[in-house]
Design goal:
single chain; alpha/beta; Rossmann fold; UDP-galactose 4-epimerase, domain 1; 2 domains; seven-stranded parallel beta sheet; two-stranded parallel ribbon; binds nicotinamide-adenine-dinucleotide
Length: 311
């Protein structure tokens, strides 16, 4: 299979590429502008079935110039401006990501790509009106630019399918963590703070809940969709259903790392910090062969990796 992964120098994209190249019948082209990603997340150099392109996916000219002669079977479109603070502070930059979505779709349409996989987000659900959040029945309350782009992106995928028969699968990722993740995200931030005995900082009183999916479960589910032709022209939540408050998470990480850190409460974020978030993952579970990794186990694996990097 010839596969293009955008955002492939990031946490989820990089982990996906590392897995895809293990199959030597795959060739993986990786595109990233290195805004939040980095080259050390790319697959190991011992694999010769991948190539990296430093490209801004939102730049139509640059994108087409570099990739027009390629014939991809599949595309994973994972590039996006991410991180709560970054997306709140740069709404125009975030909204511009719709260009990358259109570039990928136009490419897919003109080059007979078999299917495009799109990383949407739990953010499309907005403030929770029902828990757990279900793909087909929970209303989408997206208001913030990041969520609006993901929601509009989903509509674009449906539109290209309707008018051009381009196949898609939309993944609504819920908080996903792992050793390649940047400090923008809460688990990595807390682990790094705990390992250096710094205060762990929480926005608000920490009663807001989240679920956290270890990266390996995300990758297993998405690769299964690819290989077994699952969920074509469909949407699925990819996450964990083990709900925990941010305060409990901080306490758990302090316990696991045997840290002397204290917990400090900062003023609540003015917007964008949902009170509760928990997916219905029955669709995801229907294709998984093993039980998901527990939060404790995933945190331990992340701590071991971060420790071995000397962080
Ligand atoms: N990690 C999560 O919990 C989570 C949750 C919901 C959705 N997502 C989505 O999953 C995808 C991957 O997120 P991640 O957590 O791995 O974040 P990440 O920052 O590690 O990965 C995003 C990658 O995209 C690259 N990128 C950004 N804009 C680009 C552009 N214009 N052109 C080329 N490359 C660009 C970045 O450099 C980075 O490597 C994103 O689309 C994100 O919105 C992630």
């Amino acid at each position: 299979m010839k596969i293009l992964v955008t955002g492939g120098a990031g946490n989820i994209g990089g982990s996906l590429c590392r897995e895809l190249v293990k199959d030597n019948t795959n060739f993986v082209d990786i595109v990233d502008n290195l805004s939040t990603g980095s080259r050390d997340k790319l697959p190991a150099s011992e694999f010769d079935n991948w190539k990296f392109y430093e490209i801004d996916i939102n730049d139509e000219y640059e994108f087409n110039k570099s990739l027009e002669t390629k014939n991809y079977d599949y595309i994973f479109h994972y590039a996006a401006v991410v991180g709560v603070n970054r997306t709140l502070e740069n709404p125009k930059l975030v909204l511009n990501d719709i260009e990358g979505i259109k570039n990928v779709l136009n490419y897919g349409k003109s080059n007979n790509v078999k299917r495009i996989f799109f990383s949407s987000s739990s953010e499309v659900y907005g403030e929770p009106v029902e828990i757990p959040q279900k793909e087909n029945t929970t209303p989408l309350n997206s208001k913030l630019p990041y969520a609006v782009v993901k929601n509009l992106g989903e509509s674009y995928f449906r539109a290209y399918n309707q008018e051009d028969n381009l196949k898609y699968t939309i993944f609504r990722f819920f908080n996903t963590y792992g050793p390649l993740q940047s400090e923008d995200f809460v688990i990595t931030k807390f682990i790094k703070q705990a390992l250096s005995n710094q205060d762990l900082t929480i926005y608000g009183d920490g009663s807001q809940t989240r679920t956290f999916c270890f990266i390996d479960d995300n990758i297993k589910a998405t690769i299964k969709c690819l290989k077994d032709n699952q969920f074509i022209n469909d949407v699925l939540n990819i996450g964990s259903d083990q709900e925990i408050s941010i305060l409990e998470l901080a306490e758990l990480i302090i316990r696991i790392t045997e840290s002397n850190s204290n917990i400090i409460f900062l003023p609540a974020l003015p917007e964008g910090d949902m009170t509760r978030r928990k997916p219905d993952i029955s669709k995801m579970k229907s294709i998984m062969e093993e039980e998901p990794i527990s939060l404790e186990e995933g945190i331990l694996k992340s701590v071991e990796k971060l420790n071995s990097k000397g962080t």
